[in-house]
Specification:
single chain; about 300 residues; eight-stranded mixed β-sheet; two-stranded antiparallel ribbon; 10 strands
Length: about 300
């Protein structure tokens, strides 16, 4: 597997990003070693919050949420998926598969030895993060699901079809434009530059190109059986699960219904609809941080 690594200088002086990089090594089934970047802030003994980003963003998406939760004494961990942010980027599109990403992140999660994790996941952070919950339910104490899903052969919306067509046909994948277009507010030039930083040129974007094609929205897609198996676990998951979808995302609109109906832990939870586009972390960071903090506090007081 040929690996690209974004030069460190691309990440120098990013706006509102004071966080020191940390790295782990994950090993693919073919023996390839990949460097995975993550943020790990706050006290080591604080309640653990895991923030998982999607496509084509990176941990920068959570910068304000990290700061708010660390201020509450939480240990906040935000990894970059392989192919994104400061993590290594396989150079060939065919090297990116759903199951490989689940395996890479599973390897990382076990290395980190995390327990009693509160997960917030959005976009591909949910497609992968919810598979981690299904694989290691004992490690998770609660889940907040936002603008994501766990499709198993269905779910092709008009919004997703438009995104899929655009992502595969546009000659230059405009990362900053995509992030800005997925927010209600206008990102600053500095914020847009931070989202473009991981990708010096098109050769670094093979993962970003491939991800939309991997979402298992038809019975013919790979990973349908694996996601069906994951749903069977989630249908027994009785720890708190809160949905926090936004009011302005055409891609995932209505996706909260499946989680509320199928996951036992979603019953009687304070589900919310937040203001924002697809990247609601940019539009409602304070509300997201408060939602996560509230889940942790209720658990500490003995309330589910």
């Amino acid at each position: 597997m040929e690996i690209l690594r974004t030069p460190d200088e691309r990440f120098a002086g990013l706006a509102d990003w004071p966080y020191a990089p940390r790295y782990a090594t994950v090993v693919d089934a073919d023996g390839t070693q990949l460097r995975l970047h993550y943020v790990d802030e706050g006290p080591r003994d604080g309640a653990v919050v895991l923030l998982m980003h999607g496509e084509p963003s990176w941990a920068y998406l959570y910068r304000k949420i990290i700061a708010a939760l660390v201020a509450k004494g939480r240990r906040v961990i935000a990894p970059d998926l392989i192919g994104f942010g400061r993590s290594d980027k396989p150079a060939q599109r065919g090297d990116y598969t759903y199951e490989r990403h689940v395996a890479w992140m599973s390897h990382w999660l076990l290395q980190m030895e995390l327990e009693d994790v509160t997960l917030f996941c959005q976009d591909w952070g949910g497609l992968i993060g919810l598979r981690l919950v299904a694989a290691f339910p004992e490690r998770f104490a609660g889940v907040v699901v936002a603008n994501t899903g766990l499709p198993a052969g269905t779910g092709l919306s008009e919004g997703f079809k438009a995104w899929l067509d655009f992502s595969q046909k546009v000659p230059v994948l405009p990362i900053g434009f995509i992030l800005n277009g997925g927010c209600v507010r206008d990102l600053s030039e500095a914020e847009i530059a931070a989202y473009e930083a991981p990708f010096p040129d098109e050769s670094y974007k093979e993962g970003a190109r491939q991800f939309p094609t991997l979402v298992p929205i038809t019975p013919q897609h790979a990973s349908v059986a694996e996601n069906e198996a994951a749903w069977k676990v989630l249908e027994r998951f009785d720890k708190p699960l809160i949905t926090a979808f936004s009011d302005g995302d055409a891609v995932t609109r209505g996706g909260e219904a499946a989680f509320q109906a199928r996951v036992p832990g979603a019953k009687d939870q304070p589900h919310v609809t937040l203001s924002g586009g697809h990247f609601l972390q940019e539009d409602s960071p304070a509300e997201i941080a408060a939602l996560i903090e509230g889940m942790i506090v209720r658990r500490a007081k003995g309330f589910a």
